[in-house]
Amino acid sequence: MAQRKYRLTDRLIMALDGLLRADAPEASGADVPSPAVAIADSVLAGKANAESARLMRVNHTGEICAQALYLAQASLARAETTRQMLENAAQEERTHLRWCAQRLEELQASPSHLNGVWFAGAYVLGLASAAAGDSVSLGFLEETEKQVVAHLDEHLGKLPVADRKSRAILLQMRRDEARHASRAASMGARALPAPVRGLMRLQAMVMKTVASRI
Ligand SMILES: [Fe+2]
Ligand SMILES: [Fe+2]
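Above are the sequence and the fe (ii) ion SMILES. Below is the predicted complex in structure-token form.
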């Protein structure tokens, strides 16, 4: 049977639809439970609550971007093993997204209002990296995850000490992201040139600065 060819806009709409359903509260308990569930809640003081909310809003947006990147990369992957790896990673990012969404709700904070924009931007970026071939695509994933691990270390240092729930989430995410990076490396990821890595850091910095506010 002939495979249906999807246009970029079709793929984007399908991916967005999946994202919206994944973020729905009723889907929250559908897969791996949040590491925060096992931890007793503690009331955070106003300032600490605001700081945790600001950090978790950024992490929520980061998981949206990760999912968009990997879904886009999977859609153009040449090898079946690459496609499966990317889809598995996207699935785990969706789980992370739910954990962050749950925590934001507990902190009585809302996600970034620009999440649709971040998703679309990351999706296009994912398509561009995948168009260059699987080894570049895997190299892009490896570099992304390395930068995310460094970012999570920074956030773990900034998180209010009393916020043990958010800390448990970030620690588990850090373990998963490091595993995504080493998996890509083991599958033949090509190292990206330094200017590209620098541009990725710059783009992430813009996203983090804006998402922490809007
Ligand atoms: Fe993640
Ligand atoms: Fe990841």
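The first helix runs from residue 8 to 22.
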